[in-house]
TrEMBL record:
Pfam family, any one: Tricorn_C1
Organism of derivation: Marseilla massiliensis
Any one GO BP annotation for this protein: proteolysis
GO MF, one example: serine-type peptidase activity
Domain of life of the organism encoding this protein: Bacteria
Occurrences of domain Tail specific protease (ranges): 114-314
CDD domains: Peptidase_S41_IRBP
InterPro entries xrefs: ClpP/crotonase-like_dom_sf, Tail-specific_protease, Tricorn_C1
Entry protein name: S41 family peptidase
Transmembrane domains' residue ranges: none
Amino acid sequence: MKKFLYVIIPLILGLVQTSCVDEEEYADNPEGNFEALWKIMDEHYCFFDYKNEEYGLDWNQVYLKYSQQIDQGMTDDQLFEVLGNMLAELRDGHVNMYSPFDNARYWSWKEDYPTNFSDSLLRKYLGTDYKIASGLQYRKLDDNIGYIYCSSFENGIGDGNLDEVMFYLASCTGLIVDVRGNGGGQLTMAEKLAARFTDESIHVGYIQHKTGTGHSDFSEPEEQILKPSSGIRWHKKVVVLTNREVFSAANEFVKYMKCCPNVTVVGDKTGGGAGMPFSSEMPNGWAVRFSACPMYDKDMQCTEFGIEPDYNISLTDDDFLRGRDTIIEYARTIINN
């Protein structure tokens, strides 16, 4: 039997925080692992109240439903399937379970929607002479609009690299920042890029922390402030492109950018993922990762299920066949008008 080690994952805050919590011990068998996982989520997951309001989630009813499927003679594969299905009731892309033989994940947050993105069209717009800096792919389009494609915030973005990008694109009439397909990464990197689009500190949202085991036990909301970069900043029009695959730290980036001046968001609603990830371990050694600290926009609205664009534009079949990206072309129209 094991006690649980809870770890705050640093990819969101960029800070390492750990805490050991003594919990009731459970046997390393199907029933014990089920009870342990349900309780871990019950005491630490942060969106129970919100999801009860949104679609009627009742975690106690979930317990009754899945506890009936647990049998002491079931195999690890069978147990993994039942526990994975239970976690899927949360409809949260940040909820994952890891075993030596498989990972349980909830992909419907993006797979149930059109991608509104084409890698082949991206290659057409970038051409063969685009530049790369800190993972950012960028170039000047033929109408003198700057274009930056940011596929991830997983890796560091250097201040010097951003200065070079901004300096190179400075003569452009406007800028398109494309984060379609960006599944997140380090929140500090999302902040660093967004800080290039404001000249003053701006209030962009709130964060809360769990203070107890109850579903509603949270600290008072703490303001999130985006501070301007000390490097080269952009002052002309900006259009941010989004789709359903924009998640976690990238979702936060869109939230920040909607608060910056001269910014318009175009595309599809983002995928969400507005909770700070947290991890724990079950008696059998399987790991579980889930949202533990909720984050909100500046109006204290939860962005767990995504952020609406200013203009909801989809990639059309006709444009795709013509080699045109409908969403990029709409962004160009906004900048040129």
